[in-house]
Every structure is written in structure tokens, then in C-alpha cells.
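retry 2 of 3: previous attempt timed out while embedding adenosine-5'-triphosphate. Reduced batch size to 1 and resubmitted. Inputs unchanged:
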Amino acid sequence: MTFPLPPNSIIGLVGGGQLGRMSALAAARLGYRCHILTREADSPAAQVAHGVTISDYADPASLRAFAEQVDVISFEFENVSAEGLDLLASIKPVRPSPGVLRTSQDRVVEKQFLNDAGVPTTAWAMVSTREELADAARRIGLPAVLKTTRYGYDGKGQARLMTPDDLSPAFARLSPKPLILEGFVDFAAEISVIVARGSDGALAAFDTVENRHRDHVLDLTFAPARVSDDVVGQSQAIAHRIATALDVVGLLAVEMFVDAQGRVLANEIAPRPHNSGHWSIEACPASQFEMHIRAIAGLPLPAATRHADAVMRNLVGPEDMALWPEILTTPGLIPHLYGKAEARPRRKMGHVTRLFPKGALPGEHGIAAVLGKLAR
Ligand SMILES: Nc1ncnc2c1ncn2[C@@H]1O[C@H](COP(=O)(O)OP(=O)(O)OP(=O)(O)O)[C@@H](O)[C@H]1O
Ligand SMILES: [Mg+2]
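retry 2 succeeded.
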């Protein structure tokens, strides 16, 4: 395959969730078709795609059949085995590369990579036995957060350790999976930067945004982040540094903490579109999803400019879905639903975006007022 991909080429996307759905919609506008590899029938991405392969991500015959039907392969879901990634890469170009995915799949590999690249993180230690946990807790101090090194999302596979009495129950719950202990960051804010990188090394980074979680699930994103110029500078520099050190072709999201001293620490990275970038669909000429498709297709990357300020509010679980009729009649709310059949608790069902003139993002009360029943 030659890049840039010509119009009507087929982009293979691994993963059938909402990130794949919004990537496929962006791809369609650019004249591409998407073929989705997913475990579930009727997935959010497959509903809007050209083709679908329904299979386990580990089945070599399905991976091969999927790869043979597409021109380039990318991801909205990163947890494909190393062997599966190598198999895909032996058949078609994989963007970002299997090496990038391997780094982001494992919190220990990821943290080591970040520190080696000169990017600050909280103190951390690999933990495989109860004794190692005691040692690590002594060294790092409490409070701390114990996490599984793999397959975590939306705060799953984590335990907060406040006192020495918390170590045993947390270890019992999360082991025998490989674990990492992280020093707890008493953060002033959580922020993120999404950056696109082309195969020529060109970078296009969206503005730094601020994220608020609720019950460990992203709740609100404010674009731009209401932080100092110094924090913006640190966060942008970190995102650029990581994208370049990883040699990523595609999109990279970097989640960061701002600590009490105004220092920015990297939390985790995701080499794909990210929930904290959904506001870009309406607030930017080229959204994160368009940037993702452009980068993997080898199209030129425009600057990641923003023409509006924005607030994004996730719609999570049955409680938020009950508000859907009101959302549709609240002036200014731009509604998105992902096509999931069942609204289970903590499940991301959709989101809304509210735009403001650039530079006019209101304060807490103003945002609450425009969100109506969705206000926190
Ligand atoms: N070391 C830490 N100190 C303080 N808070 C933390 C720490 N690690 C995680 N958290 C909190 O838990 C949230 C989820 O953690 P993290 O991003 O590591 O896991 P995840 O399961 O991959 O979540 P997600 O899918 O939401 O990104 C963070 O956004 C933050 O609010
Ligand atoms: Mg996270």
C-alpha cells in the first residue's frame, strides 16, 4: 500500500466502541471506508462502518482475514496480544506500530519509558509479592494507589491504600495479576493533551484541557484548561516529547496531573483518540478523529486549531439516559449517542458538548447554568 491512502481505501480499526464509531464517521467524511474488528455483534463502530469482522482479538484466522480485507490497520482498543499485533503487522501496515501499543499496554513498561524519556511521573514500583508491596509502600509512602499493570480502564483494577491495614486486602483482591504501586498525587487538576503525529514526524497538538472524574469515570472536560501558562507549557512540552520519543504515527493522548506545586506529572498515555478530546468534533476545524484518520492514512495534518471554547459532559449509565428527552430540548447542547443497546451503570452511553465563544468559557456557575439538568 502506498501512502497517502487514496480515496475509497479501507481502514481497518480494531475495537468496536464509541472511539471507533467516531473515527469511522470522520473517515467517511474523508472518503474512506472502515472495517471493524470487534468481539460483539451490533457494536457502536460496526453500526456506522463499511464492514465488520466479529471475533475474539486473539484468533489468528480472524486476525488474518481482517487484515487481508483492509489497507491500513489502527486501533481504538489497545489490548491485542503481542503475537496478534505481529501477525497483523506481517500482513498490512499497522499505525501506530506494535511497539507503541506494547509500551502503552503495560503500566510498568509505560512508566519506565516515560521516565527514560525525561518525563516526570509520580514515584512507582513494580509489585509481585506481598513483601514487595510492603517494601514499596515503605519507600513510596502512603497514601498510594495499587493498580494492575494491564487491562485497566475507568478506574477498574485499582485500590487506594490509605493505611498499612489496607495493603493485605488490596493485594488479595488484585493479585496474582502483575501490579504497580504509585504514589498518590494530591492533584490540583487533571489535564490532558492530544497530539497527532505524521510519519514524517510532524506534530499537531490540541490545546491542553482539564478533566474531572466522577466515580472513576470521566465526567467533564473543559477546553481550554483553566490553568497557568506555565502549566500549559509543561503539558504541551511533555506531550511533544512523548510523541516524538515513541515515534508514534497516529494520535497520542497524554493524561497528566498538576500537583499542588504546579508541577505537571504524566499519568498514562493512550495511542488513540481519547474521551477528553470529544469536544474537538464541534470546536475545531479538524477533530481528534479526523486527525487520527489523517495521520494513519498519511494525509497532511492541519494545525490543531480551536475556534471555540467548549465543555464536554459524558452521558453515563441509566441515570443520564433518563435525561435524554431534556437534553434534546436544552438550547445549545450538542448531543451524541453511541448506539449501545443497554444503559448499564457506569457505562458511557454518549456525550454532550456545549460551545462558547473563544476566550469566553464561563466559570463553574455559568457552566452549571447551561448544562441544565446535567449540571453537577
Ligand atoms: N497516582 C494517582 N494519584 C492520584 N489519583 C490517581 C492516581 N492514579 C489514578 N488516579 C485517579 O484515578 C483515575 C484513573 O486512573 P488511570 O487513568 O490510571 O486508570 P484507568 O483505569 O486507565 O482510567 P481511564 O480509563 O479513566 O483512563 C485518574 O484519572 C485519577 O483521577
Ligand atoms: Mg486514565
